[in-house]
Amino acid sequence: MAGTDTTGLEQMICFELHAASRAMTSLYRPALEALGLTYPQYLALRVIWHRGRLTVRDLGAALRLDSGTLSPLLKRLEHQGLIHRQRGTDDERTVWISPTPAGAALEHRVADLPHRLACALDLTIEEFTQLHHLLTRIRGAAATASTI
Amino acid sequence: MAGTDTTGLEQMICFELHAASRAMTSLYRPALEALGLTYPQYLALRVIWHRGRLTVRDLGAALRLDSGTLSPLLKRLEHQGLIHRQRGTDDERTVWISPTPAGAALEHRVADLPHRLACALDLTIEEFTQLHHLLTRIRGAAATASTI
DNA sequence: GCCACTTCAGTTGTGCACAACTCAATCGCG
DNA sequence: CGCGATTGAGTTGTGCACAACTGAAGTGGC
């Protein structure tokens, strides 16, 4: 790749990635708004549903977000009665997160979202796989390079 | 695609897209920070450099951003002395944007960023093309569907 | 046991994204 | 021409992302 003129593509990729991410969020917004959720809250809940009970630290590792972002987000989810937060007893630095019954019940109400999204995007399984592969590569490169 | 179980892939895609977009921003951040720019400001400047002189409306159309986002961003670029803003004379609703000499000079200082990004990502031309195609599809689907 | 070091969650401040809104300028129909 | 509808930029308020920081809790070397 070095030595090749990629200026045109880079321009498109860096912008298109940004735009596609926002477009995806817009696709979800109406459905999530009906449940009183934002897109990042939905992503956090998916991890919480999957894991059942985890620390803020582990949620941050899964979502690649720090406590500066998660603390206020989790405070809002707790305020909505969707999750439970409680200090660890053995290690009082950690905070354990778990869904409340109301929070757990919400999982059923978003159960069809993945399918509806897949239909809306209208990509083949191969395209999904390709996309996933490429996005993972970008995240891997960012983690490795740390800067350009 | 309808009727296929895509739950697993969707989960990954919706999160991976979000994470990859943030990772890309992180890759650029150190280089842009040295110039006093944020990533959205950089994207806006690319359009401004390319077009030379355009209205806030046209910049918003190019970036898919509304005046609510652009007005404060452009105010900061103007305050840094990188762009010029002036009301149109024939139509006083419009505001024309153009780079100042300092703003135009900045283009040379980011000239190698695309190449450095391409090297860091280490994708082939085919992969870049694939990625661009898939991201465009997502944006297109979002524009068409408007909701899922 | 003591103390420097690290870890974890939370806070503060800045900037972006977006909805909802304001307000002036312009347009277009009758 | 007159006036309602539309357009363009800006403002306000909410939430997310992230850097930089705080402070309490735990850890390890001595």
UniProtKB/TrEMBL annotation, chains A, B:
GO MF assignments: DNA-binding transcription factor activity
GO biological process: response to stress
Domain HTH marR-type: 10-140
Main location: cytoplasm
A Pfam family: MarR
Subcellular location: Cytoplasm
InterPro entries named among the record's database cross-references: HTH_MarR-typ, MarR/SlyA-like, WH-like_DNA-bd_sf, WH_DNA-bd_sf
GO CC terms of this entry: cytoplasm
Record-given protein name: MarR family transcriptional regulator
